[in-house]
Amino acid sequence: MIDFFIYKASLSGAIFGLTLFIAAYSTYAERKVAAFLQDRIGPDRAGPFGIFQPLADGLKFIMKEEMIPVVSNKFLFIAGPCIAMLTALMAGVIIPWGGTITINGTAYSLQIADLNIGILYVFGVVSIGVYGIMIGGWASNNKFSLLGAIRASAQMISYEIAMGLSIIALIIMTGTLSLGEIAANQAGGVGGDWNFWNVVYQPVGFLIFLICAFAECNRTPFDLPECETELVGGYHTEYSSMKLGFYLFAEYINMFVSAAVMSTLYFGGYNFPFMNDLGLSPNAITTIGTIVLFGKISFFIFFFMWIRWTIPRFRYDQLMNLGWKILIPLAVVNIFVTGLFLTFFGN
Questions:
Q1: What angle do CA 222, 207, 164 make, to 5 degrees?
Q2: pLDDT at 347
Q3: In degrees to the nearest 10, what's the CA dihedral of 269, 310, 245, 319?
Q4: Which of 265, 243, 240 is closest to 183 using CA atoms?
Q5: What distance lies between CA 210 and its chain's CA centroid?
Q6: What is the pLDDT of residues 217-231, one digit of tens each?
Q7: CB neighbourhood size of 159 (10 A)
Q8: Which residue, of 5, 48, 49, 160, is most buried by count of CB atoms within 10 Å of its CB?
């Protein structure tokens, strides 16, 4: 039992550190991707090829003078970025980062907590995250910050509905809410052992989920809550120092977690083609599977960045029309079609 708790604590610490590391270097990757798409060099001063730029940014945020507006609600002003950061980190505990690994005859799962309501847990944590933005914007006592917070809450609530409906079709098909079971059901090799990834069965659901993930992460073309041309800086206009850093960092953590969830739900998670036909040991398969999962996550993170520097920002009315008039009806139709198909053609 003690070994089990030590393992879980170690795994939790490893995932926590890895999440922060990937989020930090996603800022570096974003600058390099933007530079590539715009035919620029990007960061190249802090270390070889600019690889120490995230460390320089973090040091700058920590050392920068911190200002709290006199007219703000100081407690909530501080609590806002803390909530945003905390909820961003909480979702990683139910993601299966790999299969099982055997150490001294004992099998250990590379999933911190395999909840039987894993998907509901993700939505619960995400729904709390909007409070961090809303509280920060309101506590600033600034009309531009408040407007950004209202935009963020309306946007996230609207797109959470479509995202939840897109997941219902997947739940109907898989029959489980556990991310561990959903990932395990997509494993396979050849012949009768072959299993397609869920994106083959739910392409419309994946497309809806992907669009909603952009909106949930406040990424372009859905970054209206922090639209600098209209709102100065949106909900974090009054923030400086590491409190601003927390808001910006939480966005990249949310992007990483969203990529991990999409990879798990629709692209097999840690599974890869012909994994059961290579003749390798279970530990080797688990190791390769974890590397494959992070490869899928890296692709989706790159896709987030690619879209940001390719598509212009929507108007706010276009944003809400897309959510309420297109994505939600499309998600309902997808549920209906999935139910009919499983009723007449399912096993």
A1: 80
A2: 57
A3: -90
A4: 265
A5: 10
A6: 888 788 877 776 677
A7: 25
A8: 160
Vertex 249, ends 22 and 239: CA angle to 5°? Answer: 165
Beta bridge mates, 101: 108
The two structure tokens encoding residue 260: 């991990």
Which residue reads 């090829």 in tokens? 49
C-beta of residue 82 within 8 angstroms of C-beta of residue 247:
no
Q: What is the pLDDT of residues 306-338, one digit of tens each?
A: 998 888 888 888 888 988 999 999 999 999 999
Q: How many other C-beta atoms can be found within 10 angstroms of the C-beta atom of residue 326?
A: 13
In the numeric block, the tokens 């039987």 are attached to 116
pTM: 0.90
What is the three-class DSSP state of 189?
coil
Inter-residue contact 213 to 163 (CB < 8 Å): yes
Buried b (16+ CB within 10 A) or exposed e, 137-152: bbbbebebbbbbbbbb
DSSP codes joined into one string, 269-330:
TT--TTGGGS---HHHHHHHHHHHHHHHHHHHHHHHHHHHTTSPPPPHHHHHHIIIIIIHHH
Contact in structure between 11 and 100 (CB atoms under 8 Å): no
C-alpha 146/C-alpha 238 separation (Å) is: 11
pLDDT digits (tens, 9 = 90+) for 20-78: 899 889 999 999 999 998 888 888 888 888 889 999 988 888 888 888 888 888 889 88
> What is the rounded CA–CA span in Å between residue 168 and residue 171?
5
**Above 70 in pLDDT, residue 346?**
no
Q: What pLDDT does residue 190 have? A: 59
- Give the separation between CA 66 and CA 115, rounded to whole angstroms: 40
> Residue 1: which pLDDT band, with cuts at 50, 70 and 90?
low
What is the C-alpha separation between 97 and 179, in angstroms, rounded?
10
Amino acid identity at 209 = F
